[in-house]
Specification:
The structure is a single chain. This protein has 16 helices and 22 strands. The chain is α+β, with helices and mostly antiparallel strands. Among the domains are: 109 residues, Alpha-Beta Complex (Flavocytochrome C3, Chain A, domain 1), CATH 3.90.700; 107 residues, Fumarate reductase/succinate dehydrogenase flavoprotein-like, C-terminal domain (Methane Monooxygenase Hydroxylase, Chain G, domain 1, Up-down Bundle), CATH 1.20.58. The strands form six sheets. Strands 1, 2, 7, 8, 9, 10, 18 and 19 form an eight-stranded mixed beta sheet that branches. The radius of gyration is 23 Å and the shape is globular.
């Protein structure tokens, strides 16, 4: 089959993705430069199917009028929660602009939940404290337990009003990079089976997460690490890929997220004997400790024989107890999560204990960027005209452990900032862009159609995901990761013997899954190699054979692929600008002990 470019189009800004970060970026560009031609690609059938829509609990933002909270406390909590690996310039920038983003959303129609006094309601999440860890604080604003959907509705509406062009069921398959500058990308339109070269003054990667690398995940089916794979194939690095978050409370069976809101409103984690066990792991914060600590606590209870075996799925778990909460809480604050338990495991949160265990949730690592979202190469140089936002990017706001409600905050804040940066870049770029030619996609897709053999794409994918869940999950060791790499090598060989039964380019789901398998393998291998390199435990990356944090690894990990196909590991310094700047609270931002 002949694979080639079917057409070429030009635009001012190309956004690969259409979730929260992408839409906030697009809205900013269209507000600042109304005449701009902005194209957003979405892998799914409609932007509203993007994974941001599933976000439940809220977004962190300090109200300047709050007498108990302060931006400096939010900054401290984020730094401490990251296990001292977030970049402090990024932490400062995002936390200081958080309330501005709340006002932007509310002024454009988002229906935040309010209290009886008419003020924005707030809830607390794990690691949200006042006075540098003294006590919990209410910091997260929310729209019931469908906050992500509210953000998507609002941002989507803003982009539609201002004339964005969406290309649904379209994927980016190759970045057009030449001499340190990005000129757009090659896109594949699944509906009509065509490859389009899209030339753009600014290209923004906002492809979301990579949860499908793991068998048990809260992520949607489409989150296969496509953006990370794109940059790796372009000889660019990914940063901190080993920093993978496992949400403590995935619903046993489907793995669907049972929001941290459940613990925020007073849910209690109990083991087989119905004992509340978090007091043994985080005496002060208990259920409201950061996610990595709670996830390890649950796994430890299960490993030590205090878990419960689910009879329907034969999966060990613990309970979350919501029975003592008022009907008002069940019906107004957690209605959607309660419905998930009813729909998927036939339990009533008002009367039944609910089964949960850690589920892969979020990738703190991603495409390395500057504090302004500009993509960086392995040498730290910026790739002109290329930006990354949202979960696929690593600025790094989250370091090695993300606090609940910081992800949506990062989406909209970095989306807005990158929109501003892209506008400035577009002003300086000539209208007649160079004419870069793609080098990779035609050979890649031809190989898929030329494959022969009897290997099953689905079986290979399931073997990879099961292996990553078993060997490179909440607890890791050198031996388990060696086993994972052996399986990855085996799958890389076996994938050459897969054959597509459908020879058409149009709406060929088998073709899409074969492409996704390549992406999953790239991301899985980078995660495992980085985790092997980091011989310590830090945040969500925990090694049984190296259980302590080590100053030797006070840096970010950069993983890239060399010309010969081997993986290369490099470093990027952690930004300590708040600590080095001194000032009244500078001493709070050193490499502090992380206890709760």
């Amino acid at each position: 089959m002949k694979i080639g470019i079917d057409s070429t189009i030009r635009c001012d800004a190309l956004i690969i993705g259409a979730g929260g970060a992408a839409l906030r970026c697009a809205a900013e560009i269209l507000e600042k430069r109304p005449a701009s031609k902005v194209i957003a690609l979405t892998k799914v059938t409609h932007p509203q199917k993007s994974h941001t829509s599933t976000a439940q609990g809220g977004l962190a933002a300090v109200d300047p009028k709050d007498p108990l909270d302060a931006t400096i406390y939010h900054m401290f909590d984020t730094w401490k929660g990251s296990d001292c690996t977030a970049d402090q310039k990024v932490v400062k920038r995002i936390c200081e602009s958080a309330w501005e983003q709340i006002l932007w959303l509310e002024n454009r129609g988002m229906h935040f939940s309010r209290n009886r006094d008419g003020r924005l309601s707030k809830r607390t999440f794990g690691g949200h404290t006042r006075n540098f860890g003294e006590a919990s604080v209410y910091r997260a604003v929310f729209e019931a337990d469908r906050t992500g959907k509210g953000i998507m509705d609002t941002s989507w509406g803003e982009t539609l009003k201002k004339g964005i062009t969406f290309m649904n069921q379209t994927i980016g398959v190759e970045l057009l990079i030449d001499s340190g500058q990005c000129f757009g990308a090659v896109a594949f339109r699944q509906k009509d089976g065509t490859f389009i070269r899209i030339l753009a003054k600014a290209t923004i990667l906002a492809t979301g997460g990579s949860g499908q690398v793991f068998r048990v995940t809260t992520n949607c089916r489409q989150n296969t690490g496509d953006g990370l794979a794109l940059v790796l194939q372009s000889a660019l690095p990914v940063m901190d890929p080993e920093a993978v978050q496992f949400h403590p409370t995935g619903i046993v069976g489907p793995g669907i997220l049972a929001s941290e809101t459940l613990r925020s409103v007073g849910g209690i984690l109990r083991n087989r004997d119905h004992e509340p066990f978090m007091v043994n792991y985080a005496p002060k914060m208990k259920e409201l400790a950061p996610r990595d600590l709670v996830a390890r606590a649950i796994e430890s209870e299960i490993r030590e024989g205090r878990g419960v075996i689910n009879p329907d799925h034969n999966i060990p778990h613990v309970w979350i107890d919501l029975r003592h909460l008022s009907a008002d809480v069940h019906e107004k604050q957690i209605p959607e999560v309660s419905s998930f338990f009813k729909r998927y495991v036939n339990l009533d949160t008002k009367t039944d204990l609910c089964p949960v265990r850690p589920s892969n949730h979020y990738h703190m690592g991603g495409i390395p960027t500057s504090e302004f979202g500009e993509v960086q190469g392995s040498d730290g140089n910026l790739i002109n005209g290329l930006y990354a936002a949202g979960e696929c990017a690593a600025a790094s706001f989250h370091g090695f452990n993300r606090l609940g409600t910081n992800s949506i905050l990062e989406l909209i804040t970095m989306g807005q900032l990158i929109g501003e940066m892209a506008c400035s870049h577009m002003e300086s770029e000539p209208d007649a862009a160079p004419d870069p030619q793609p080098r990779l996609f035609d050979e890649q897709f031809s190989r898929y159609f030329n494959g022969t053999g009897t290997e099953s794409i689905g079986r290979l994918r399931n073997r990879l995901r099961s292996t990553m869940t078993e060997k490179v999950s909440v607890f890791r060791t050198e031996a388990s990761m060696n086993e994972a790499l052996s399986v990855i090598d085996e799958i890389k060989q076996r994938r050459q013997h897969t054959r597509l039964t459908n020879s058409s380019l149009m709406m060929n789901q088998e073709l899409l899954q074969r492409w996704e398998l390549d992406n999953l393998l790239l991301v899985a291998e980078s995660i495992t190699i980085a985790a092997q390199y980091r011989k310590e435990s830090r945040g969500a990356h925990f090694r049984d054979d190296y259980p302590q944090r080590s100053d030797e690894f006070n840096h970010h990990t950069l993983v890239s692929i060399g010309p010969d196909g081997t993986y290369l590991v490099g470093k990027r310094e952690i930004d300590l600008s708040i600590f080095k700047g001194g000032g009244e609270y500078g001493d709070k931002f050193g490499f502090i002990e992380r206890t709760y």
